[in-house]
Amino acid sequence: MRIFVDIRHLSHPAQSGVGEYTVQLLRALFALNTDHEWILFSSGVSRPPCERLFSLPLPLTKEWVSRFERIVYPGGIQHVHLAEPNKILKLKIGLGLGLPFTSSVHPKPDLLFLPNLNVLPRTEKTPKVLMIHDLSWNIFPSFYSPRMRMWHSSTRPRELVSSCTRILTPSQATKRDLVERFAVLPETVEVIAHGIAKNFQPIPDAYDKEVCERYALPKRYVLFLGTLEPRKNLRATYEAIKRYRKKTGDLISFVLVGGWGWQTNFLRFKIAQGQQEGWVRHVGYVPPEHRAALYRQAEVTIWPSLYEGFGLPVLESMACGTPVITSANSSLPEMSGSAALLVDPYNSQDIELALMELLSSPALRQTLIQEGLLRAQMYTWEQTAKKTLEVFEKSVSKKFLISNS
Asked: % helix / strand / coil in the chain, to the nearest 5?
């Protein structure tokens, strides 16, 4: 089977959750050592560094064919890059001038895998499997900037979803949202949870101290890791931690890890105020290889999001032996089970009480740590890869059955 994978989103130097999903899944798929062929497709001014992202060996060949750079690696993997600015490419697609991406390789691929929503030419008729990570952009459009809402609209999501052979979601909650809002048949949607990278584990790494010194982390802190945006509910979290500190006299700090998102003016003001007072630390974007150390050193990870399709930081924290406070909504209870304290994210007092309960009880802390470690063991990228490959194989088999009937 020849599988064509859209990796256009990996051109960005700071990988988002979708980027991390794509990298970890493909690494695990390649490690299965199947007889399948993989064609990675990207576009734009710069080419994603596939050798580094996927730990690939030195390429066998490199060649240019028209505007396409084709790199062939051992193991049936090739990378095809279209050297055209993405803005121009999207404009062409919007005007109906875009050629099928799969036409850039021969023979024709059997399947096109989209790790996330993206703009596709309408002429792309190759059977498709699409991962829908969440429907926050559809359920809570106010959480997104006009530019991002326009981008989601440009992907023609309803048309794209209806054209796919199979849809993947990382949770039952996202599947329910998809079935309800897009009227897709439940049997066409497969739930495959994300995995946890192996470096997220409770045993300290030799570089933990170096990482903590690099980001000037305080001795004791509550950790948030993710994009700083309204959906993450950080204003309520900030106020809850501030009240907790005042009522208990516990001078624990609040460390935020992640880049700035949309509508953050008030949050920026609050964080700046907290930094001046000495109890808030915003370290910005941190590469994946440094994150395990940040979890391990934290007293608790807090993730009171208003909506999540999966929420990988919750499981990463559990895998590192750090207890979690998260929201009792969307996919988060499904994922965390009894291994986290669940709160009403719309009630900052509930977040404050959960902090008091956890930080004042060593017994509760140890219980959550042990349950979290067991819970995290249920999520591996190898398992995710095997289940995803099964969907690919079934999708292609269905295509052949239809064509032969």
From this structure: 45, 20, 35
pTM strictly above 0.85: yes
Q: How many other CB atoms are there within 10 angstroms of residue 106's CB atom?
A: 7
**Contact status, residue 62 vs residue 79, Cβ threshold 8 Å:** no
For the domain 208-376, what is the CATH superfamily, name and number? Glycogen Phosphorylase B; (3.40.50.2000)
Preceding peptide of 186 cis, ω within 30°: no
What confidence tens digit (pLDDT) does each residue in 320-341 have? Answer: 999 999 999 999 999 999 999 9
Task: Give one word for 278, left, alpha or beta, with left for phi > 0 and alpha for psi -120 to 50.
Answer: left
Contact, 20 vs 55, CB < 8 A?
Answer: no
Q: Distance between CA atoms of 199 and 290, rounded to whole angstroms?
A: 10
Structure tokens at 67: 């505007």
pLDDT digits (tens, 9 = 90+) for 201-225: 999 988 899 999 999 999 999 999 9
Q: Quote the strand ranges of 308-354, DSSP E.
A: 324-327, 341-343
DSSP states of 84-146 as a string? S-HHHHHHHHHTT-PPPGGGGSSSPPSEEEESS-----TT--S-EEEE----HHHH-GGGS-H
Residue 260 tokens, joined? 């700035």
Pairing label, strands 253-257, 280-284? parallel
* 2-195+381-404 CATH choice from 3.40.30.10, 3.40.50.2000, 1.10.10.10, 3.40.50.720: 3.40.50.2000
Question: Measuring CA to CA, which residue among 44, 262, 21, 45 is closest to residue 150?
Answer: 262
Written as six digits, the tokens of 137 are 């952009």
Q: Which amino acid is at 368?
A: L
Within the chain, all domains assigned CATH 3.40.50.2000 are found at 2-195+381-404, 208-376
Taking the alpha carbons of 54, 56, 61, 62 in that order, is the dihedral positive or negative?
positive
